[in-house]
Automatic annotation (TrEMBL):
Species this protein is from: Phaeoacremonium minimum (strain UCR-PA7) (Esca disease fungus)
Lineage of source species: Eukaryota, Fungi, Dikarya, Ascomycota, Pezizomycotina
Pfam families noted in UniProt: Peptidase_S10 (PF00450)
Listed name of the protein: Putative carboxypeptidase s1 protein
GO biological process terms, semicolon-separated: proteolysis
Family label: Belongs to the peptidase S10 family.
Length: 117
């Protein structure tokens, strides 16, 4: 399985630019200034936990209090995460994956995102 992160993408462009500069690649350089990824794939086993952590502790403003944080972490660890782990890659069933997505959205993500824009 290949992991693609936002650090790999700029590195690819830089390596191509270096090859152009070295004369080993005949192409036009792309000078990457910024990178935005729209609707990128995530690892839900990390992302749902990060929603809770970020809502409680971030550099902007706290979105949930400590008791909400503890409760949501419990929902994630005992409800969301086990369901996500029952839906790995190509071995999970559609029903297991739908159950995981529904549970995690309704019990973690929607609560964190509720009434916030």
């Amino acid at each position: 399985m290949m992991r693609l992160t936002t650090t790999i993408i700029p590195e690819y462009f830089q390596n191509q630019n270096d090859a152009i500069d070295a004369g080993t690649l005949s192409a036009e350089k792309i000078n990457l200034v910024a990178l935005g990824i729209n609707n990128g794939w995530i690892d839900a086993t990390i992302q749902y936990g990060a929603y809770v952590d970020f809502a409680y502790n971030n550099s902007y403003r706290q979105l949930i209090n400590e008791s909400e944080y503890v409760s949501l972490k419990e929902e994630f660890e005992t409800g969301c995460l086990p369901r996500l782990q029952a839906c790995p890659g190509e071995t999970g069933t559609d029903a297991a994956c739908q159950d995981a997505d529904d549970f995690c959205y309704e019990n973690v993500e929607a609560y964190v995102m509720d009434d916030r824009s």
